[in-house]
Input
Amino acid sequence: MKKTFDCVEMKNEIQRKLQAEYAGLTLAEQKKKMKREILSDPILGPMYRRLTEKRNGDAELKVAEEPGEYKTGE
Output
């Protein structure tokens, strides 16, 4: 059966685009940008707000500083 879609390659491509988008930003700036983007999203924004309300404050955003490349088992 011929493979028509490679989800691992899609994930790697998205990660490369995000790395380029965040290039040159400090870790604090990356977190601030992510939070701004999450809060402006119509689905993630309300969910994030509910999560932070339950925790009585700000949910910590995790940022991978050195992402790894995933490969398929070919």
User: Anything to note?
Assistant: Residues 60 and 72 are 31 Å apart (CA to CA). Residues 7-22 form the longest helix (16 residues). The radius of gyration is 16 Å. The mean pLDDT is 83.
